[in-house]
Specification:
A: alpha/beta; Rossmann fold; 6-stranded mixed beta sheet; 10 helices; 10 strands; B: 298 residues; mainly alpha; globular
């Protein structure tokens, strides 16, 4: 469904991705893990069209989408839940969702909003509240709900549990499971590397702009040694290495 | 008491015109982080449009539509021909571009029409007066306030209810996030310029009904006041722009009316007093009345 082939992305003189390649097949949940600064967010932003790669190509459902506008990619069926959620704090919950449905034909928009209110009961209670007043967990659910409004066939999620309380982390992981059981294809960047890989069908390990390992999610998660060397602190819970180092 | 009431109504009249212009400036600042110094030129465009049509038998019955239409087109044209090409340049480049358009506009009217003022007829009823409880008001004051309120209601409905309005507000807060929702940058920015043109067109109608004349640099004075009003209110805040405009209008008329008449010509100091008050205000509250938190650049 998604084929990222050897993309190099630069911010001015700094190269954040060095020819990274990965693939997401229809119906899969793929986890992209790696230490801070590895280029995970850069990769998702390049796929979603916020950044243009210097070299390499991105194909979505067989069509070359390299360097396409995000607005066109949403219409093609690809949506990104960006890092730090980036919900519109000045807009109400409803307005955030309406904007999420910007590409949906007017006649269907109302129905989509009703569906979202049904699925995300937390949001229904805060329907006319400014999104700036939501808690972290509510804001994350809004960010996901907003991206789902366009009914994307591929959903990209960037650090969906960042900064959330442990109970809310559980809620978000349950949400990912639900979405997968509905057959939604997803590419997830996640700081809870072990947990994300255990949930994922397949995983990729990104380090300093390169994909350094890939495989079935559970296998990657089990490879504690690999994790120690590349991720440090996050995987430490499964090994006897004392926690610390990278976060 | 009578004087105070009349002064307040006068102030509201002038202030509401400032408010409409400030709203347009705030709107463009929201989506582009540009203080558009060419915004006042839309009044000039409206004025020359009216002058042109009156030469060929125009009537005030339909002139407002022509003025507003011209302002909308001119506003969208500046975006399409100029600002679009420097959208990702530094804020300084954007600012310079807007200055350039302002100067170019002055020069073009001077060269192709005349450096002198060109007058055209005013509506016959403008300076008619009527009395409520012994206090006399001008018809135009009431028309100005009424039209402004109606325009603000339309603005509120557009930005609260329509997808275009929500897109503009979303884009003003976080442009990339709005693009991720499928909002097209060109469309939302072009639409914002169009709407700012509409607001400036309405303001131009109100201004031209009172002073029916076109002059190459007539937009600049209004622009300066409108920018001040927008900044007093807090750049990027719609409510702030309206409040800032009304406050500035009241401040001006009140100082003009109540500065002591110790010597002739003291009323000339009213502008100075207004600027002093504004300077003190910015020392106390540099972000304006309504602070806009997300003032990062798009």
């Amino acid at each position: 469904m998604l084929e990222v082939d050897g993309i190099t992305t630069r911010y001015g003189a700094i190269t954040a991705l060095h020819g990274a390649s990965l693939e997401v097949r229809a119906g899969e949940l793929v986890a992209l893990v790696g230490p801070n600064g590895a280029g995970k967010t850069t990769l998702l932003n390049t796929v979603a069209g916020l950044l243009s790669p210097a070299t390499g190509s991105v194909r979505f459902e067989g069509v070359d989408i390299t360097g396409s506008e995000p607005a066109d990619l949403v219409r093609a069926g690809l949506a990104l839940v960006p890092e730090h959620r980036r919900i519109f704090k000045d807009l109400t919950v409803e307005e955030n969702l309406k904007l999420g449905a910007a590409t949906v034909p007017k006649a269907e928009r109302k129905q989509r909003l009703d569906e979202a209110a049904e699925v995300f009961t937390v949001l229904r209670a805060k329907w006319n509240t400014s999104a700036g007043f939501l808690s972290g967990g509510e804001a994350q659910q809004l960010a996901v709900a907003r991206a789902l409004m366009s009914n994307p066939r591929l959903l990209l999620l960037d650090e969906p549990t960042l900064g959330l309380a442990p109970t809310m982390v559980d809620v978000v992981f349950h949400l990912l499971e639900d979405l997968r059981s509905q057959g939604r294809t997803m590419l997830v960047v996640e700081q809870n590397a072990t947990r994300a890989l255990q949930l994922a069908d397949r995983g990729y390990l990104l380090r300093t702009g390169n994909i350094v390992a890939s495989g079935a999610g559970a296998d990657l998660a089990a490879d504690a040694e690999l994790f120690d060397s590349f991720i440090g602190g996050h995987a430490a819970a499964t090994t006897d290495t004392p926690p610390g180092g990278a976060t | 008491m009578t004087k105070l009431l009349q002064t307040l109504v006068d102030g509201l009249g002038v202030g509401s015109t400032y408010a409409l212009l400030a709203l347009g400036i705030s709107l463009i600042f929201g989506v582009m982080h540009l203080v558009n110094f060419a915004h006042g030129e839309l009044i000039t465009v409206g004025a020359y449009t009216a002058y042109f049509f009156f030469l060929h038998g125009g009537s005030w019955w339909w002139m407002p539509f022509a003025i507003i239409g011209a302002a909308v087109l001119a506003s969208m044209a500046t975006e399409f021909l100029a600002f679009r090409w420097v959208r990702n340049a530094s804020p300084f480049t954007l600012l310079l571009t807007s200055f350039a358009i302002e100067r170019l506009s002055h020069a073009l009217w001077q060269i192709f029409v005349s450096p002198k003022q060109r007058a055209f007829p005013k509506p016959s009823w403008v300076f008619n007066q009527f009395k409520i409880a012994g206090v006399s008001f001008e018809v135009m004051d009431i028309v100005t306030i009424g039209v402004t309120i109606a325009t603000l209601v339309i603005t509120a409905v557009v930005f609260k209810r329509t997808l275009f309005g929500i897109s503009v507000r979303g884009a003003a807060e976080d442009f990339d996030a709005a693009r991720l929702m499928g909002v097209r940058a060109n469309r939302v920015i072009s639409g914002a310029f169009g709407f700012a043109g509409f607001l400036a067109g309405v303001a131009a109608c109100l201004i031209l009904m009172r002073t029916p004349a076109a002059e190459p640099s007539m937009g600049s004075d209004w622009l300066l006041k409108a920018v001040i009003a927008a900044v007093i209110g807090g750049l990027g805040s719609f409510t702030g722009a309206v409040v800032g405009g009304v406050v500035l209008g009241l401040l001006e008329t009140l100082t003009r009316a109540y500065l002591p008449e110790v010597a002739t010509g003291w009323d000339k100091f009213s502008t100075a007093v207004v600027f002093i008050v504004i300077a003190i205000f910015f020392v106390i509250r540099p972000d304006g009345i309504f602070k806009v938190s997300h003032a990062e650049r798009v």
